[in-house]
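[Q] Does anyone have a clean structure-token version of this?
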Amino acid sequence: MKNLSVKFKVTIWFAVIMIFIVAVTFCIILWASNSVMQKNIQDNLIETVEDNVDEVEFFEQLSDVQSDHGDDQYIAYNGGYLEIDDDFLDRVNGIITALYHNDGRLLYGENPLAMVTADIPFSDRTMRPAVSDGTTYYVFDCRLESDGTEELWLRGMVSENQGTGQLNSIIRISAIALPALLLLAVIGGYWIAGRALRPVEKITEAASQISRGRDLNKRIGLGKGSDELHKLANVFDDMFSRLDEAFKTEQRFTSDASHELRTPMAVIMAQCEYTLEEPRTAEEYTEALTVIQRQGRKMSRLIEDMLCFARMEQNGKSYPMERLDLSALAEDVCSDMSLIMDKNIALEWHIKQGVFVSGNRTLLTRLLTNLISNAYRYGRQDGEIIVTLDETDEIILTVKDNGIGISKEQQKKIFERFYRADSSRNTEGTGLGLAMVKDIADYHSGSVEVSSNEGEGSVFTVRFPRL
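[A] Here you go.
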């Protein structure tokens, strides 16, 4: 069974269920047919005997009999005559009707079960069984109530096997029709299972092609539909799209990281080779070590940023969340970074007290540090940076500067990794600062946005949900 296809397994189970249903149906048909047949036999017996009651009359003299009764039978009885009408059915459809006296004497007709029914007393309109040679018969008595016939009885008898022929016909028809219907149902079930599972085959084929060719652009494409398999196919297509995007992002990230690391590494190697070519003065050694140190720090920051990205994307355990006083954290970061005074830029902050957030201290510190560092990096000489923290329906953190600003085209890209808005002016950054700000905001179920005009400065706004 393990090696069989799902379609074949479904068909087998469907066939087993259908066989069980057909068998039960056949048994029910036999039981119902037999019950209905026996009921019909008994009803016919009662109807025949009761109809024969009207065909027996008593006349004191033959002259009282109408002349048009030439085919009737006459029996001397009790000083008169019994007229048995020619419509009297003494044997019809296996039903035998006989005329008896109250003392058990047979007056008209025949009784092949006389030995069996001799001990059965007459009982008006009562159905009773009698067994002869292993066969059960139904016996029905009806008392005559017209003048002169008060002591007479009609007794009818019929075998319960009277409907055997009809029952056998039903059995033969059922034995042919039910297996034929079963076969058609199984064939239809196999066909329906194949059609129902066809989308699964397309899903399997698409997944196999992706696995063999590593082509995440492949899609199942079942088209429109609202059933479970169409929903599954759409989920797979969405998953393939996300995987494709993730792989492309990873490839781009790896390529960019390699490129960013290659430049400082090349500078370090070139500086080392140049310095070791021949003896140098102390000043030249100091200059070379300074260059190597600067490039090493750049590589260290780049590696640290990449590690932070990897930890955030890997799982949430690396940076656990806690109830954090964001007001105190922002004041500490602003106080420390106000000492930088790069380009004589003044840093001011307006922090609302008592603002708490569910977050990670390390990540939120880095978020605010990156925003302020970015403002310093692209700020004007003797400019200013203003940091504000407020709480309304949500927590709002803004970093505003009056620096060189960002063009509309660049604003769409500044949150991408390794993108620099003005690489010609600045080579100190890694191109990961704002990308990390966005990832940290997302990590805290928040968002970040920028509003900027060239030559007028920029405003970065980070929003967090309230506790």
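[Q] Thanks! Anything notable?
[A] Residues 261-314 form one domain.
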